[in-house]
Design goal:
Strand content: 25-35%
Radius of gyration: 20 Å
Mean pLDDT: 79
Number of strands: 10
Largest sheet: 8 strands, mixed
Helix content: 10-25%
Oligomer: single chain
Structural class: alpha+beta
Order of helices and strands: EHHEEEHEHEEHEEE
Number of helices: 5
Low-confidence stretches: 40-46, 189-201
C-alpha cells in the first residue's frame, strides 16, 4: 500500500485497521461518552463491596459495559466535505446511510487525514428508525467516511456499508467515486520505471 495501493475498509473492518498494533487509520473507536471505565482483570472473583442503601445500590448497579448501545439498524444523515474528491456528486443535503452496531469513531485530526463525510447535527441526524438519545448525542459530527494517506497509497474507511442492498443512492455515489478515482489519486506520486511513468498500485477491499 505504501507504494501506491488502496485499502478500503467497511463497517467492522475498521476495528482491524484502527487497532493500535496495525494503525493504518489514525482514529480510535470510542467508548460510551461519560462512562466510568474500570481496570478489572477478567477473573472468577472480584473484590468485595458493601451496599448501604439505595444510593450505593444504584452505584453498584451502574452500567459496566463501557461501549455505546448498539444501533439496531437506523438511517443516519451524513454531510459531505464538498472539497474532497470522494464526495463528488453528493448534494448539499448530504446522504442517508444505514448504520448498525456500536462502532463510533473520533474524527481524524487535520494532520492525520480527512473526514470526507461526517454524520449530521443532532436535529438532522435521524433519517429513519429509532435512535436513542445517548446514541444521537454521541454520533453527532463523527466521521462516516475517512481517508488517510499512507505513503503513495490511500486508506478509505466507511463506518457503514454504503452499498447496503443497493438501496441508498447517496452511498453509492461515494462508493463509485472511491472505485473510479482512488487509484488515480495514487498515480500522482508514481515512479519512473524504465523510462515510462508507471504507478505501483493495487486495490483491496
Amino acid at each position: 500500500m505504501e507504494a501506491g495501493g488502496v485499502l478500503v475498509a467497511i463497517g467492522e473492518a475498521l476495528r482491524f485497521i484502527t487497532d493500535p498494533d496495525v494503525a493504518l487509520l489514525s482514529t480510535q473507536r470510542e467508548r460510551l461518552a461519560g462512562s466510568e471505565v474500570e481496570d478489572r482483570e477478567k477473573s472468577a472473583t472480584i473484590a468485595g463491596s458493601l451496599i448501604e442503601g439505595p444510593p450505593d445500590n444504584a452505584a453498584a448497579l451502574r452500567r459496566r459495559d463501557p461501549m455505546p448501545d448498539p444501533l439496531p439498524g437506523v438511517l443516519l444523515r451524513a454531510v459531505a466535505d464538498r472539497q474532497h474528491w470522494l464526495t463528488a456528486g453528493v448534494g448539499d443535503g448530504g446522504v442517508n446511510l444505514l448504520v448498525e452496531g456500536r462502532d463510533v469513531y473520533r474524527p481524524s485530526a487535520l494532520d492525520e487525514g480527512v473526514n470526507a463525510m461526517r454524520f449530521a447535527s443532532a436535529q438532522d441526524l435521524g433519517a429513519g428508525g429509532h435512535l436513542w438519545a445517548e446514541n444521537r448525542a454521541q454520533w453527532v459530527w463523527k466521521p462516516a467516511v475517512a481517508v488517510t494517506k499512507r505513503g503513495r497509497g490511500l486508506v478509505v474507511a466507511f463506518v457503514s456499508d454504503p452499498n447496503f442492498r443497493g438501496a441508498l443512492d447517496g452511498g453509492l455515489i461515494s462508493c463509485s467515486s472511491m472505485l473510479f478515482c482512488a487509484v488515480r489519486r495514487t498515480r500522482d506520486d508514481s515512479t519512473e520505471v524504465r523510462g515510462t511513468r508507471q504507478a505501483r498500485h493495487s486495490f483491496a477491499i
